[in-house]
Amino acid sequence: MKKTIYILAVLLFFCCARHANAQKSVSSTELIEKAAYYNNKTVEYQGEVVGDVMVRGDSCWVNLNDGANAIGIWADTNLLKGIIKYKGDYNNKGDILLISGIFHRACPQHGGDLDIHLSNAAKIKEGSVIKHPVSPVKIKNALGLFFVAMGLSILYNIRRNRK
Amino acid sequence: MLLRPKYSDIKIILYYLGKITLGIGLLMVIPLATSILFKEYNAMFDFLTGMAVCFSFGFLFIRIFFTNEDLDWMHGMIIVALTWVAAALFSAIPLYLSGHFASFLDACFDSMSGYATTGLSLMADIDHVSNAHNMWRHFIMYIGGQGIIVVVLTFLLRATGAFTMYVGEAREERILPNVIHTARFIWLVSLVYLAIGTSALFLTGVYEGMQPVRAFLHGLWIFMAAWDTGGFTPQSQNILYYHSAIYELITISMMFLGALNFKLHYSVWTGNKKELIKNIEVVTLFITALATFSLCAIGLAKAGVYPEAISLFRKGFYQLISGHVGTGYSTVYPKQFVFEWGGLALVAITIAMAIGGSACSTAGGIKALRIGIIYKALRQDINRMILNENTVLLEKFHHIRDIVLEDKHVRSAAMIMLCYLALYFAGAIAGMLFGYQPLEALFESVSAAANVGLSCGITAPSMPNALKLTYMFQMWIGRLEFISVFTLLQFLLSTVKGK
Questions:
Q1: Among B116, B203, B259, B452, which is disulfide-ready with B363 (CB 3.0 to 4.6 Å)?
Q2: Could you read off the pLDDT of A101-153 as tens digits, one per residue?
Q3: Per-window interface: B 210-239 vs A, CB < 8 A
Q4: Which residue from A50, A74, A111 is facing B310, i.e. has the nearest CB?
């Protein structure tokens, strides 16, 4: 019994350690500032899908923003099939992806771009539609100021007509 | 002895300022229409508020300071200097209301950067900005590039003394005999290229995998900022977002066209194509671009960041030309300049930014014409030393026509160049006072004062407010090429100390 518990504890430890390791992705700032160190290494990076998924033949470009910078991810389209639903823009919070891939300080395939060539991708958090309710204060302020502007324009026109 | 200005002077200045403020309010119709088109109602109220404030101040000023008196040179210069401050303040209102700025000062920084076609930005979370606010940011650049006064002269105002205001916006060259016709020609050129550039970028965007509507909007915005050598982009990665060599090629062509003198455009449009190879500005630009690119390429090769020659050329050439013509578009991250590019490449780009584009264009910096004139004067002086002292030396330069080099040309060019150099170093010292490294501080200062917009990472919402104000001042005075701002300062001084 003791032996079984011991084995289970060891397995649990390794699972947790592996999981913790997987969560420890590199930030965009670190990739940019220590580009020479990470060059041609496999890295894990996490960020929000922003803008377009730009399909180029069998591959595509996805830009992932981790809050500090967005980094271009060059991916086989099949690897991202069914993963991306929301792309970040004014109306949407994009999906958060955790990806792993080879980091290039100056990608020889893409004219020297700093990018990551995707190996694996997983969705950490699904994006959502962003609602932009107009605050009543904003409406009141805008309308109030417009009435002021109209009043002043009337006053100006009265004076001009008199002249 | 300083003479205190009369009340009538102040009345004229504030009356025209009121009229121009009304014009700025009217310009907000474009982003307002965009917000309605894309059902961005929150943004719509931001622009309604901005317009209402402009109209309120505008009508108030023209009501209180109503006058029929004509403008003179001093009024024109002061109106221009104040217009740019007022435009930055009023245009910042909808930007600030967007919620993408930490403070109103940050929003003013961006609107001044937009009007001055600089491109440095303190906007947070650019990837989630509304279409209406993006339209406004880029439209501001388009207006600023042509000149706010040019816009007002073309569409809104029929003012006597218009030429003084036109000159005040650093446009001392009149392309056509009538200044209103000159302003309209500038707009004609800009609108023709707007159609061509937007179409080219739209088609490229669709070809490169963007959604058609986004491809069109991005095409329009990127063109506006490229042609006006501005540098704002709708995505945080700047031009790197597109990962497209074709996009880079089109933007580099557009920004180069924007950096050419409108007089040269006129000359080429009217059939004089030889001007393109004979003009002193084009020749100077070619030589300085070649020299600074060579320096940059050596620096990059030494740093070893781009092992492939094609990558080195593509990255080095794009950033260098973008800096030289004052656009500030980039395909590298700001921090890469510091951590990857090395000192020599950074110095090369700083020199290119300091030189700038052509006079009477949308570019900033010292300008190729002045560099060319100073070089010719230097050559003349050296030749004078070598030859017999009785020899009469005649130096000419070609700018639309052959012009004999005179002392007045050299004096004017040298004076403005000295002012720019002083401005560059003053900004660098300010940066160093806040703890930034000398080369980085100089890079950012030159970028702000020459209205470029490339950043090595100093410009951020977290930078000290005093440095934000320093860069704003540099953008303003650099765009207007000193004279109108100096006139305003003198006017303020005489108001206080005059008799």
A1: B259
A2: 999 999 999 999 999 999 999 999 999 999 999 999 999 999 999 999 999 99
A3: 210-211, 214, 235-237
A4: A111
Please identify among residues 193-212 of chain B the ones whose CB lies closer than 8 Å to any CB of chain A. Answer: 208-211
- The closest CB to that of A70, out of B208, B236, B245, belongs to B236
Residue-averaged pLDDT of chain B? 91
Residue B69 touches chain A, beta carbons under 8 Å:
no
Comparing CB atoms, the residue among A53, A112, A130 nearest residue B311 is A112
**B236 vs A52, A69, A74: nearest CB:** A69
Residue B390 falls inside a structural domain: no
Contact A111 B335 (CB under 8 A): no
* Residue B132 domain flag: yes
Same domain, A69 and A138: no
Rounded distance between C-alpha atoms, residue A128 and residue A93, angstroms: 5
> pLDDT tens for residues B188-237?
888 999 999 999 999 999 999 999 999 999 999 999 999 988 899 999 99
Interchain proximity A152–B340, CB inside 8 Å: no
Which residues lie closer than 8 Å to B308 by C-beta, 6 or more apart? A106, A108, A112
Whether B412 is in a domain gets the answer no
User: What b/e string do you get for B190-206 counting C-beta neighbours within 10 Å, with b at 16 or more?
Assistant: beebbeebbebbbebbe
Residue A1 belongs to some domain of the structure = no
How many structural domains compose chain B?
1
- Residue A2 within any structural domain of the chain: no
Q: Assess contact for B405 and B396: CB atoms under 8 A.
A: yes
For B91, the domain range is: 1-172+464-499
Relative to beta strand A115-125, strand A70-76 is: parallel
Q: Are A109 and A155 found together in one domain?
A: no
* Reported pTM: 0.91
- The answer to whether residue B66 sits within a structural domain is yes
Smallest CA–CA distance, residue A140 to chain B, in Å, is 10
| Complex-level ipTM | 0.89
Q: Give the total number of structural domains in chain A.
A: 2
Give yes or no for a contact between A100 and A43, defined as CB atoms under 8 angstroms apart. Answer: yes
Q: Is residue A151 part of a domain?
A: yes
